[in-house]
Amino acid sequence: MTESKPLQGKLALVTGASRGIGAATAEALAAQGAHVILVARTAQSLEQVEDRIHEAGGTATIAPMDISERDNVAKLAEAIGGRWGSLDILILNAAMLGSLSPVEHLDAKELDRLFKINVLANQALIAAFDPMLRRAERADIVGVTSSVGSEPRAFWGGYGASKAALENLLLTYADETAHAGRIRVHIVDPGATRTRMRQLAFPGEEPASVKPPETVASAIVARLSSDVPTGERTRVEA
Asked: 0.90 cut: is pTM over it?
């Protein structure tokens, strides 16, 4: 007899799934039985994550695309909706760091790109998948944030402002859907984690001194089966 897993039969979508926290979360979800849609720009990296999931006995489908293009998101939702009908888990992980700079020196074009990926793309994903989330017996949305979204820090103005906007967007959606009791919104601050983005932000830091992405992935997956309220913000400690 095949052992039942907590997320058996569930469908999950993870953005930024080609590496770091996204890849680790996708693998953790698949290990618990979910079929995972892997979304990122680089097909080759997604294929590597998909291979690891399959080798571990899980299932996944890759969807290479740029989520900053709204039409891409709409087409993805249409394709997934036509095959599965409902979506149980949406992990909003993909993000851009941008340059660490004083507010007065932020590059306008880069700031526009930053908000397009960190905020507007996530709103597009929520809008496109809202019907599928509402059709699920119970759905969970996880937005990956940063401490600078709620605690401003010098030179982090662009990235911090985008995360503050994302958190507000998610908390608003949580409030709007709370009455039905079927969609939960989780805001997860991974804290210091061994990722490429962390390396870009702190180039002199010893990677081994911070926790691996798998620790964050485990915390995210654990929340899905716990009895936590919608709209809760949590930080993952080592």
From this structure: yes
